[in-house]
Amino acid sequence: MAAVRLEQWTPDHDRRADIAVRLEDGTRLALEAQRMLMTDDAWRARHRDYARAGIVDV
């Protein structure tokens, strides 16, 4: 069974996922919900931070 946590920080505290999921195989997911539009640059920075932490962002 997957583990689910709300508002979970990345290990380096650069990002906080709205919902963090760890799958049985160890895969880590960050689910984000945005109220406002993001610029492409802001999305890329967020994506890079998650990727550096080994987390797949959705």
UniProtKB/TrEMBL annotation:
Pfam families, per the entry: CoiA_nuc (PF06054)
InterPro entries xrefs: CoiA_nuc
Domain Competence protein CoiA nuclease-like: 3-56
Protein name per the record: Competence protein CoiA nuclease-like domain-containing protein
Lineage of origin: Bacteria, Bacillati, Actinomycetota, Actinomycetes, Kitasatosporales
